Structure formats: structure tokens, C-alpha cells
Amino acid sequence: MHAGLHTASGQFEARGFPEVSPPASVFPTIFESTSAIPMKASRFFVSTLKEAPADAEVASHRLMMRAGMIKKLGTGIYTYMPMGLRVIRKVEAIVREEMNRAGAVELTMPVVQPAEFWQETGRFDKMGPELLRIKDRHDRDFVVQPTSEEVVTDIARQEIRSYKQLPKNFYQIQTKFRDERRPRFGLMRGREFIMKDAYSFDRDLGAAKASYQVMADAYRRIFDRFGLRYRAVAADSGAIGGDLSEEFQVIAATGEDAIVYCPGSDYAANMEKAEALAPAGPRPAAAKPLEKTPTPGKSTCADVAELLGVPLSTTVKSLVLATDIVDEAGNLKGSQVWLLLLRGDHDMNEIKVGKVPGLDQGFRFATLAEIDDHFGCKPGYLGPLNLKKPVRLVADREVVVMADWITGANEIDFHMTGVNWGRDLPEPELVADLRNVVAGDASPDGKGVLAIERGIEVGHVFVLGTKYSKDMNATYLDEAGKPQFLEMGCYGIGITRLPAAAIEQNHDERGIIWPDALAPFTVVVCPIGMDRSAEVKVAAEALYEQLLVAGVDVLLDDRGERPGAMFADWELIGVPHRVVISDRGLKEGQLEYQHRRDTAATKVPTAGIAEFITGKLAK
Amino acid sequence: MHAGLHTASGQFEARGFPEVSPPASVFPTIFESTSAIPMKASRFFVSTLKEAPADAEVASHRLMMRAGMIKKLGTGIYTYMPMGLRVIRKVEAIVREEMNRAGAVELTMPVVQPAEFWQETGRFDKMGPELLRIKDRHDRDFVVQPTSEEVVTDIARQEIRSYKQLPKNFYQIQTKFRDERRPRFGLMRGREFIMKDAYSFDRDLGAAKASYQVMADAYRRIFDRFGLRYRAVAADSGAIGGDLSEEFQVIAATGEDAIVYCPGSDYAANMEKAEALAPAGPRPAAAKPLEKTPTPGKSTCADVAELLGVPLSTTVKSLVLATDIVDEAGNLKGSQVWLLLLRGDHDMNEIKVGKVPGLDQGFRFATLAEIDDHFGCKPGYLGPLNLKKPVRLVADREVVVMADWITGANEIDFHMTGVNWGRDLPEPELVADLRNVVAGDASPDGKGVLAIERGIEVGHVFVLGTKYSKDMNATYLDEAGKPQFLEMGCYGIGITRLPAAAIEQNHDERGIIWPDALAPFTVVVCPIGMDRSAEVKVAAEALYEQLLVAGVDVLLDDRGERPGAMFADWELIGVPHRVVISDRGLKEGQLEYQHRRDTAATKVPTAGIAEFITGKLAK
Fold first, then answer.
1. Phi and psi at residue A299, in whole multiples of 5°?
2. Most C-beta atoms within 10 A of its C-beta, which of A514, B82, B320, B602?
């Protein structure tokens, strides 16, 4: 029997695995860190694979699987293995520190949440199958949280009574679940994931904007510390308007998002948001006659331009939309058909279209019946001339300055060429920015032309306004004792997505290349023949302890692997700094240092190795 | 627009809330701690209540609610508010450090787990409504993990190939869910909770026992560091047998569990496990005649003893059990009735009864029909004499040494007195330990007598054997290249239950009294009239920064509350060390220090206050 009454005065000797402990001054005891425990590979868990599973389509997924950082349990559901968890913990630690520094206060909301809160805001019904729903033993509805706006608003309406308590910002780093239709790319689009979500509460929109700015600044510090190339890009903020939404995008050629920036200034926005300015010059004068030109079987702008031997940019495409007309009782009374004209080489931007007056309450693509009714023709040959019934016409800013353009004739196998505003059809009723920008467009800030690159969204800051506080009646009392709705903001960082994004940006054919701040270990000490050579063993352990005491996150690979396999492991895992200790080197008084990005090792005198390495880290 | 390309070389200046940062040497950067950020009450979230909600039945629930540590979201589901989360993080940090020190490796398994793994072990069907089940958008079954034996065994069967990889111990600190029938007592018996669960894998039972011992030792270090009075008590280890299960119980008068210990030795066990030794002396000689005595309406031993004016310990109670007889095809062929005899003042111990040969494959209480068939009487007057049909008789160790005892006559309203073994009925066929021990019983280790106190189970270490590895075919290859089942152990600590248990043990009428290691803040600096007195403000901030730099987890209460309210808050919250700074004190060159357990403050010269406090903590 092993028992008896124990108290704090009991002894602390390390039974089991006695190990060297770093001096207390290096590792404080308040919230003791994972790294306070010496790490030798034999006591850790290193598990690498030669081949990635077939379903791993992107580099980060392949490499995290091969490096033993994650393990698939089900579709979009992964165990964070010891090597991967260390990276996640480093992400969390940086996020937590900067959130605290910015005055946010950490709490932890439940993963399983009663549906009643989600019903208050209507999201329980609106969210669709992405929201994972549960019934408990009493048949009551619950959800697994995908975010926590409802719960944090419930906390705020109970806790925040007076303007004196504002501003307040609560955050959590917690497990989330979204039942994605197509989970893929490992941690990039998983179903279960860890997110940092923060929610600010303010007395008015001005104060909410200030809280937003504090968070936007904290995010810059966070992403700076991660050591990744990223852009903070303006994003559409929906009904709120103004510059109140930014995405933090890690630059990577494999990114899902197109991000727009101006190399000559600090302008950056996502594709949804980036504005296409009206062209600077005036419309050229009409030079060609209006003609109906046969274009048999050519139903796309590209085909027509090729047939006619003209640039695609001289063609105009017709997009037919419709809005429903309902009476006050909500009964459908008919529809209004809209014709949007865009240059043939441009793509429609749905967010922008949704801001056109008249289309801003919702729109849809017109039905074939509606199209036939107004154009007397089927899609492929539609245009603004010779309409059967009038439509509302909206021209893109670029289209309105075109002359002698080409568009559908509303007759199968025919297009109109030499079309000119004013002469052949009236000036457009509405002109708007309807399209995605393209590289080379003028920057909205007038400081050059736009470029486009790919990014992975890993953070988002957003002013929510009073949507949730109104739905849930979350108010505070102002100076006059009058209840006012709380102005909210929300701020997310994809904690488990971040390592995947970092890998997409930083890898080569041998494996991952972590920035120091995110590496599972910053330095790996690789002794060659540690089991055969007492000198190697002594030197390796001495260096390892020296680095440990200096506060370096170092791992000693004491597994006894052969050099080739050992090096391949750490190159795959992506530890940025490696020191090799060999018998031959020691005889020469030298060790070999190599950064993961270096093509060859650097010989460093044994005596100065610790300073050499800490110098590399300090950079 | 706030954008542009940022890199790690970007500047780090603190925008938003500039604050004093402690020197880097105090807070290392590897896994930076929550406490690295200066804590002032105005930037934190302090929210106390005068009254606890009506459903808070126990002290820990009441006090955690009143101190603003937890907030109820639904039945058995709580948000960990900032003040409570700090306590939980301190529990986690100590657990994590000692688990790492003991050679366990941290990973994080999913909260939402595919049912297929739970079907492999049969627990998906066996576990009942306590297991929260989900269907995803594709109607596939999932569970919210209550523990992770299945998932970790799946990891082991994939990852552990050779005996060379053993032993291995994986652990996680992760959200769990059990859909309890009666959630209550706040975090003590919630539905969602945080548990540290560890799982060891070994080559054979001997190695598994060694891994178990490493964990049992680590648990002692963990509970020592928490600063709580606790006992590690032997628990029943089910089919495995031997001393392979211990519970860690925090001593508290309000505990749900009875724990048995010997004040004169280190023997301790839970009630299920604690052995009642056979009495030392021989059976006294028969001194009374056997008589049928009228006991009208007296159907309990207590009533009979009172009627006859004899001690309860001279009576014997009859418990009638039954075992089903089935043929090889599993068809029910009949039943065997058992009569268990216990002293009238003793309680049956089901676990012990379940180990009696013949009862160890399952038993039930006999039906009224079976009782009537064998005893010719209804319960209340049953006994071993004058049976209608033979039964199998098992006597408790204590009963077999009794003489002149009293038991039912198998006739309504009559008992037999002066009953004696050998003379009036044969010596019992089976003698066994069938009862719960009581205070004053001899200790099984022969070193005195047993005492009983109440405890709250907060940890459990357990050898699992090969149950899961056999169900899931988790094997490794031994030296001969032969597959062998992995021997497992599991080790839990209730991370969110621990603070509740700590409070049950450490509170008074004013609030919580945290041990230093668990307190949300170790020291609170309370300035009186900080807004009115520049001297107080300067002295308070100087002391606060001095303690911060010394690595003390200190909070400065700069809210401007009046002294009474401020003191009441911190006494309720339970911060162990308080320093009060007032104008009057400063004029006298003195500050007031008070430990939460002290009845009065101690005056300490201003000059020496920081050393005084760190001295108090060092103790």
C-alpha cells in the first residue's frame, strides 16, 4: 500500500526518471513552462514517415503527417501529436501574451453550449449543417461551438451593468468544431480546430473602433513575432461600412485567397473589398458603325474576340440578374430583371454587386424564362440592344468609358459590333464598380498600380456593431442611467491553422523550415556515435545543458540513429538550428552548425559554440 | 487602410496600452507565461456577488460563483471566468510539469471522436446515456470524449511497433464531457470538465507496474505541490488484482467518499477496498440456550436489539442473494439462492461480495418468490435456521466468531436468540470479508486501528492490463519478433474538480483560502485612497513592480473601491497574502500585511516589505 497523509511539506525528490533540472532562476515557478523539463529525443516522441498518405494534397498536410505532428482520427479530425502540439503551444503562448498586453482578459467558454442562446440570435436555424448539433439525455438541444458570440454576449449582458465597466475585451483559446462539407488539407480546413476568439464590448461605435484598433495593432505584433511574411488586408465589413474589417493573410503561393496590394504604398485588401477605380481618361469618340455581325456558335466573349481578331477587352459581357418584388404581406408579386455589363476580360464581384442600390436587399441570377421574356434570346448572345422588354441596366465603371464595343445581339449566332453609348443606346442609368480588380489596375490610394498574390487567412478583426447585443438585449447603463446596446467587435486567430500556413510559406523538398518562434524545438543537438564515443556523449550533454541553462529550447537527439536518418528526420521536422557533434570534429576542436536554410555546415570552434548559437537566435 | 508587408524584423513597440514589462531574465521567452503581463485589477475582471444562486448546495460551488470564478451556462456546464481560469491554469501547469518530469509526453486528442473506435471496445453501446452521442452532417456517429482509452490505443497500435519503443506514456489536458444524470455541486460534478488523462504502454505486467509506480510517485509530487491535505488510498483494481489502483483523495468533511486510514501507519484505502480482518480472538463458548423469541413488528436488527435491550452487535442480519444458472447455450435453467450473514451493525460491501467464489460472475438480490420458496417467510424475519430449502451460506468473518447471537426465526414476528455455530447450525460453508470496515477495526497492516474520514476523489491511477489492447488488437513485436498485446495503465486528474476540492478543504465564512500554489493571485496590493493620495499611488505601484520583478504573482487593486468592499472582495476570492497601503501607514513608515488565515494584520516597515512578503512565500 502506498498511502498516508501527504502535505506540501513532503519531499520533492525526483523518482522514476532522475534528470538534470535547470536552475530556478531560468524557469520561474508562477506558470511553469513546458520547456522547463529537459528534452531528450529518447524521452520525447519522434515518429516520421517516408510517405505521406494519399489524401494529403497540400505541402503542409503532407509534411505535418510525415513529421509526426498530427495524426488523422477521422475526416477533418486530428490528434495533435507531441511534436505538433509543441508548435501549437508556441502559437498559443505568443497570442496569449499579446492579447494580455493589449488589455484583453482570458476566460474559457464551454465547448458544448445549450441551443437556447443560439436560438436567441437565430443562428441555430440559420447556420445549416456546418453547426454540429447534439441532443443530451433529456433530449435538449446543444451545439458544439464553432464560435462563441452568443455565449460571450450572454456573459456581457449579465456582467456589464455600467459604462464604467467599459471597454471590455474577453478572449479564449479553445476547441471549436465546424462540420465542413469538404474538410481537407489537414489542419488548414479541419472540422475540429483550436481558435483564439476575442470579443470587445464598448459604449459606442467610436469606442468600438478604438478597441478594434488596439486589436489590429496587437495582431500586427503577434504576426511579427511569428516571423512569417503576411499582409493585413482590408476586408468587407458588411452592413457596418467603413474600414472596420481586416484579414491577416500569410503569403503563400498555395493560398486559397487572392490578395490585392500596391507595391508602392501600404494599400492591401482582399479581392472582395479591393476597389476598381473609374478609369482616368474620357471615353473615346465613336469611330465604327453599329453592325450586326454573324458569330455562329460563339457564345463567349473569348470565342467572339478570337473569331473577330480583336482584343478580349473590346468585348462586353451581359450578366442578367433578378430581384423579387413582394408586397407588404410578403407575397411575391413579380420580379425586376437587371442587366449588368462588364468588360469581357473582367470577373463579376458579388460583394460589390450586392451594394448597388436596388440589388442591396438580395438578388439572384435570372431564370431562363425571365431572360427569354426580356431579351427574346437565350444566354450566350445577350446584350443591351433590341430588348423585348425594358430591364434595369448597370454598367461597370470600365464599360462606361468604352467606345466601339462588342456585345450580344439578342439573336442566336449574332453579336453587335461598333456599339457606342449615347449613339446606339442611352447612357447607362447606373454606373458602379462591379468587378474584381486585376493586376495593373490603378491603386485606390493613387500611389501606383495593384499587384495580386495568394494568401492564407489566419486572422480576422471585425467590428460587429450591435447585431448580437440587440438580438440578445445586452445593454449597459450610460451616464444618464439609460440602457444602451453594447457595441461589439470580434477577433479571431486560427491557432491550429497557423502552423499549416507557416509551412505552406516555409518548406522545401526535404521538409519544413520553421521560423524560430514556431519551431517545435529551436535547436537540435545531433551527436554522431554517442553510444560508441564517451567524448561525443560528454560534449553533447554538456552543450545541451549549456543551451538549456541559457534558456534555449533545445533537444538532444540521443536516440542513436545513424547520421543520415537523424539528419533527414530533423530536416523533415524543420528544426531551424542544428549542431552536429562527431569524434572527428572534436579531435579538430570543432562542431558543425547548420541553419535549416543553409546549403552547407559551418565549422565552429567547440569552445565558442554556445555563444555562437545564442548569437544566431538573437538575430 | 492599415496594411503593408510585415516581417519579423518589424518593430515591437507596444501600442495600445503601454505597460511596464518585467526584465527578460525573469520571464523567459520559450513558452511565455500568463503572468509575464502585469496585472492591475482595472485591466483584469473582478466580479463578486453578495449572494450565491439557490442551486449552489456546497461551499465550493457557492464560493466559486460568488467570487466570479465560474459562470453557469447550462446544467453542469460552466464558463471558466478570468479569476477561475487563473486557478485552473496553475493546476494545469503543476500537473504538466510533473507529468513531463516523469517522462510522459503530451499530445491532444480530439474532443469529438468517431464512434467506430468506441464500437471496437463495445463502450459505444455499454456506456449508456452518460456518453454524449452526436451525428454529423453525413449521419455518422460520433461521441464527445469522456476519456480517451480508445483513441490512444488506436494511436499506440499504429505508432508502437517494437519493444524498443516501450515504455511509453501519453497524456493530454483536455475538455471532456459526461452527460451526468444529476450534475451538481458546480465544478465538482459537472458535465463538461477538464481532465488530465494519461495512458501508459508496456511490454508486460511487470513493466506496467513500474510505469504505474512512476505515475503514483508523480501524483504525490503533484498533490504535495498543490499544498492540499490529501491521501493516496488503495482502491479496488477489479479483475487485475493486486495493489494496482490508487485514488488521490483531498480530505474534506463534505467529501462524497469515505476513506479509511490507520493513524499509526501509512495504510489507507477507500471503503470499497479496505479489508476487515478476521477477529483475533477465538469464538466464545455458547452460554445461552436457543430460543424463539417474540419480536412483533420488529423487522430490523436495530428494532430487535432495542426491544430486547441488547447491543446491536449481538444481532446478525440476513441478506438473501441469488445467482442465475444457465446452460451452455445460455438458457436460464434456474437459480441458486445465497444467504449472507453480517453483524447487525455492519454494512454489506458489494465489491467484496462480488469476490466470493460463486458470486464472482455476477449476483442479484433474491426475488420475493425465491425468498418465500427457501425461507417460508418474508424479509424482516429471515435467518439460517428452519429453512424450507437449502441455500448456500456465507458468513462474514466477524459473524463466524460470534456466540449467543440473535437472528430471524423465518417466522413473522419472531427471532431466534442464543444462536450458536456448531450447536444450532453447522459451521458455515464459506467465511469471507463481506462488510465495510468501521472506525476502530484493526488495521490490515497490524499497526493499530482504522479511522475513517471524508474525501473528494481528484486523481486515480490504475493498471488496465490488456483489456483495450485486446479489444483493439494493439500489439508490439517482442525480441523474438512475435506480436504481444500492450499492457496499459491509465491515470487521471480532475483539473477543474481540483479547485472545488481545494475550496471544500480551505474556506471560512468570509470566503476561499487558497494555498499559495493554487491562488488566482498570490499577493494582492490594496492601496487605500489611491485616487486621492499621490504618496499611496507611488508606494503601491512601486511595491507592485518590485514584487513583479521578484517573480511574484501579484495583483494591484487600482479599482478605487472603498476599503471594506475591497477587503471583502479579496477575502471572498481567497488571495492568501494581502498588503494594505494607506496614507496614515506611510506617515508611520509602515504597511499592513495579513495572511488570509491571520486574524489581524501585521505592521511591517515600508523599507522591508518586499523581502518580508517573499519570505512569507518562500516558506
1. -105, 0
2. A514
Considering only CB atoms, B108 lies closest to which of A11, A79, A136, namely A79
pLDDT per residue as tens digits for the range B531-540: 899 999 999 9
Give the span between the Cα atoms of A534 and A526, in whole angstroms: 15
Please state which CATH number belongs to domain B89-246+456-496: 3.30.930.10
Cβ–Cβ under 8 Å, residues A111 and A460: no
Please name the helix (run of DSSP H) or strand (run of DSSP E) that holds residue B118, with its range, or none: helix B115-120
Buried b (16+ CB within 10 A) or exposed e, B529-560: bbeebebbbebbbebbbbbbebbbbbbbbbbe
What confidence score (pLDDT) does residue A242 get? 58
Q: Which fold has domain A521-618?
A: Rossmann fold (3.40.50)
ipTM above 0.90, yes or no: no
Give per-residue pLDDT as tens, A360-394.
988 999 999 999 999 999 999 999 999 999 999 99
Does the beta-carbon distance from A551 to B29 stay under 8 Å?
yes
Nearest CA in chain A to B130: A137
**How much is the average pLDDT of A104-112?**
97
Q: What strands lie across the sheet with B430-432, from one edge to the other? A: B364-365, B316-326, B332-343, B392-396, B430-432
Count CB-CB contacts under 10 A for residue A545: 16
Handedness of CA B32, B35, B38, B39 (dihedral sign): positive
Q: Which ranges of B121-277 does DSSP label H, i.e. alpha helix? A: 123-126, 149-159, 205-226
Class of domain B291-432: alpha beta
Cell numbers linked to A152: 460571450
Q: What is the CATH number of domain A70-111+145-247+456-502?
A: 3.30.930.10
* Interval A6-16 mean pLDDT: 32
Cα B557 to Cα B39: distance, rounded to the nearest angstrom = 9
B137 with A170: Cβ contact below 8 A: no
- Whether the link from the prior residue into A167 is cis, omega within 30° of 0, is yes
- Which cell is A260 given? 490585392
Which among B14, B74, B111 has the least Cβ separation from residue A111?
B111
Can you give the length of chain A in residues?
Answer: 619
What is d(CA A580, CA A173) in angstroms, rounded to the nearest whole number?
38
Asked if A144 and B96 come within 8 Å (Cβ–Cβ), the reply is no
B25, B69, B137, B181, best to mutate vs chain A, most A CBs in 10 Å: B137
Q: Are B244 and B462 in contact (CB under 8 A)?
A: yes
User: For residue A44, is pLDDT > 80?
Assistant: yes
Chain B residue with CA closest to A210: the answer is B16
Q: What is the CATH number of domain B523-618?
A: 3.40.50.800
Distance CA A183, CA A191 (A): 6
Predicted TM-score of the model (pTM): 0.88
The amino acid at residue A435 is: R
| Residue B124 CB burial class (10 angstroms; 0-12, 13-18, ≥19) | middle
pLDDT digits (tens, 9 = 90+) for B306-318: 999 999 999 999 9
- SS3 state at B323: strand
Q: Which residues of B touch A181 (CB under 8 A)?
A: 137
pLDDT in tens, B151-209: 999 999 999 999 999 999 999 999 999 999 889 899 999 999 999 999 999 999 999 99
With H, G, I as helix, E, B as strand and everything else as coil, classify residue B584.
helix
* pLDDT at residue A619 in the model: 58
- pLDDT at residue B25 is higher than 90: no
In angstroms, how far is CA A517 from the centroid of its own chain? 19
Angle between helices B497-505 and B59-66 (to 10 degrees): 110
| Distance, CA of B148 to chain centre | 18
Does residue A59 contact residue A254 with C-beta atoms inside 8 Å? yes
Mean pLDDT of B316-327: 94
Question: What pLDDT is recorded for position A241?
Answer: 55
User: How many residue pairs from chains A and B have C-beta atoms closer than 8 A?
Assistant: 348
Would you list the domain boundaries of chain A? 70-111+145-247+456-502, 291-432, 521-618
